[in-house]
Structure formats: structure tokens, C-alpha cells
Design a protein that fits this description.
It is a single chain. The chain has nine helices and twelve strands. It is an alpha+beta fold. It has a single domain, classed as Glutamine Phosphoribosylpyrophosphate, subunit 1, domain 1. The strands form two sheets. Strands 4-3-2-6-5-1-11-12 form an eight-stranded mixed sheet. A four-stranded antiparallel sheet has the order 7-8-9-10. The chain is globular. Bound molecules: aspartic acid (ASP).
């Protein structure tokens, strides 16, 4: 508590001294989104696929920025961006979710509100079209933070969240991917993911983060990764930052990636890029955990950091044009 007040005091002093750049009191907003990290080698994507991924990233960033530009909340913005990506079969979330080893789709998602650190998460749901909206319902309409499997699905029904039949989540590409893993053990962990996420700062100075995934191809029945774990795959606190992660979830849970980045900002006073790089490019690398994060802070800083060859990603703010990137050395 004490440290939080000191940090808040320092932030106020910085504001008063005009030291912070863009900030929420100017009505500024910012959003960063991702569509998963992994081995995305230059030349391995056809020009058509490259263009399709960039178009989807653009559409999701624009959906969020339209909300933020009209004074909407960061929570609405991150949910809208993630919903679009969940509906897009290019990404491993919602419709395009990967298959478990036994040929099902088990979806995880979480959302967090930086205003009060309210959070909602769902794990292992099988029939929810937009798991991120169910996660938000858990946050806003239940006493709980995380609900799993049949219980989460029963809760979804009770609050009228849209469901979808198993066929909706069947895509040829993901099915072939599963067969390759099962028959040849072909995909290294890094080829197996593609989670989506969004982080935003709104014009009232509030942060939010959202993450949604199908997990990892051929995961064991009941396996849950970092995406629905608050503090690992998702975190948002107005006092520090908002983070959404993608990568080999087991490592991201063990390193409490999202919360550790925000804690470094809050308690060590590191800038957001330094904090994100310390966790993703040093700590996770030492542990052997591949992937990346996107993050935004209350000053409007928008960062990404990855230790993989690429991450589908985009960022835009009230003061800067849309930037879309795929490969690690872009942007
Ligand atoms: N982090 C996710 C998980 O481990 C996978 C991903 O990011 O693609 O479930």
C-alpha cells in the first residue's frame, strides 16, 4: 500500500513537472494487440497469408481505436478487439482454436480492469463462441474470478452468453496440425501456439487487458495454460501497466509474467520496455520459455517484447498512426 502511494505520488510529481509524455489527462488513448508469437520465419508465410494476417490485425486494432477515439472504455476496447480475433479462423482462439490431443477444442480466456483490478477468467470451455465475453461476465456478474469447464458453461447459459456447436470450432488447418503432431511429433512447442490479446489505455486514464486462446496443439485433456491465469497471461492495474502474453504457457505461469512486468514498473520504477524485456528476453530465456508480450502504461507507452522469431501485432494511439508487424525485427 505504502509503495503504491509512493508510486502514485511520484507519478503526480512527474505530471506536474511535465515529465510524462502522452498521458490520459490529455484525453489520450492507446491500444496494442497481438495474434500470437512463435516461429514465423521470413518467407514461410505466403504473400497472401502475410497480407491476411496484417489485415486482421488492422481490423482488430481499428475496432478498438474506434471505441477509444469516441471516449469509450479500455475494457470495451480490449473485449471488442479480442472478439474479432476470436471470430477469425486465422488465430488460435475462438473459431480457430487448436485441438487437444483427443481432438477437442478447450478454450481459455481472461480479462482485467485496471481501475480496480477486477478480473474474470474461464478455462477449458468447449461451446462458447467468444470466451472473452464469458470471462467479462464472470468478472461483472459473478462473485468469482475464474470458472472452468462445465461450470463455466452452465454459468454462460444462465447469463445468456452465445454458444456454438463443436463443428463451429473445426477448421481443416488446425485438424491437420493436430494430425502432424500426433503422427510425427512434428511441431516443436513454438509452432504450436497463436493466442490473441489486447491491452489499452482509455481517455480517462484507465488500463485494461484481455487474452484468449485455444491453448497448445495436442495439449492433454484438461490442460490449462497461462492465458486465463491472472498475473501470468493477463494483468492490468492503473498504477503500473496492462499486459497480455502469448507463448509456452507453462513457463509464463511459473514466471508470473504479466504481474512481474507490472511489478517491475511499479516497484523498481523501470520504464515499460525495460521491464517487459527483462522478463521476456532475460528471465524467460533463462528458463527456456518462448513467446512474447504486449503492454501499455498510463503514460500511453505502447510496447512489445518477444524472444521468438515473430509475433502478429499492431499498435495505434491518439498520437500515432497504426503500426502492424509480424517478424521480430520489424517495428
Ligand atoms: N500461452 C498459450 C498457452 O500456453 C498459448 C499461446 O500463447 O499461443 O495456452
Amino acid at each position: 500500500m505504502m509503495l503504491r502511494s509512493i508510486a502514485a505520488g511520484l507519478a503526480l510529481m512527474a505530471l506536474a513537472a511535465g515529465m510524462s509524455g502522452a498521458n490520459a489527462q490529455d484525453g489520450n488513448w492507446a491500444v496494442v494487440i497481438h495474434g500470437g508469437a512463435g516461429v514465423i520465419e521470413r518467407g514461410s508465410l505466403s504473400p497472401e497469408d502475410d497480407a491476411a494476417y496484417r489485415a486482421s490485425m488492422t481490423a482488430a486494432a481499428q475496432a478498438a481505436s474506434a471505441i477509444l477515439g469516441e471516449g469509450g472504455s479500455s475494457l470495451d476496447a480490449v473485449e471488442a478487439a479480442v472478439r474479432l480475433l476470436e471470430d477469425d479462423d486465422l488465430f488460435n482462439a475462438g473459431r480457430g482454436a487448436v485441438f487437444t490431443a483427443d481432438g477437442h477444442n478447450e478454450l481459455d480466456a481472461s480479462i482485467m480492469d485496471g481501475r480496480n483490478r477486477a478480473a474474470g477468467a474461464v478455462a477449458g470451455v468447449t461451446n462458447i463462441r467468444n470466451p472473452i465475453t464469458l470471462a467479462r461476465a464472470v468478472m461483472e456478474q459473478s462473485q468469482h474470478v475464474m470458472m472452468a469447464r462445465e461450470g463455466a458453461e452452465a454459468f454462460a447459459e444462465s447469463v445468456g452468453i452465445e454458444t456454438a456447436p463443436p463443428e463451429y470450432f473445426y477448421t481443416e488447418r488446425r485438424w491437420r496440425q493436430l494430425q502432424r503432431v500426433l503422427q510425427e511429433g512434428a511441431l516443436r512447442p513454438l509452432h504450436r501456439f497463436g493466442t490473441v490479446g489486447a491491452v489499452a489505455l482509455d481517455s480517462e486514464g484507465h488500463l485494461a487487458a484481455a487474452t484468449s486462446t485455444g491453448g497448445m496443439t495436442a495439449k492433454l485433456y484438461g490442460r490449462v495454460g497461462d492465458s486465463p491465469v491472472i498475473g501470468a497471461g493477463t494483468y492490468a492495474d492503473d498504477a503500473s501497466c496492462a499486459v497480455s502474453a502469448t507463448g509456452h504457457g507453462e513457463f509464463f505461469i511459473r514466471a508470473a509474467v504479466a504481474r512481474t512486468i507490472c511489478a517491475r514498473v511499479e516497484l523498481l520504477g523501470e520504464d515499460l520496455q525495460t521491464a517487459a524485456d527483462a522478463v521476456v528476453r532475460e528471465e524467460l530465456v533463462e528458463m527456456g520459455g518462448d513467446g512474447g508480450v504486449i503492454a501499455v502504461d498510463a503514460s500511453g507507452a505502447m510496447v512489445w517484447s518477444m524472444n521468438s522469431e515473430g509475433m502478429y501485432r499492431a499498435r495505434v494511439s491518439s498520437g500515432s498512426d497504426l503500426e502492424v508487424a509480424i517478424y521480430a525485427d520489424e517495428g
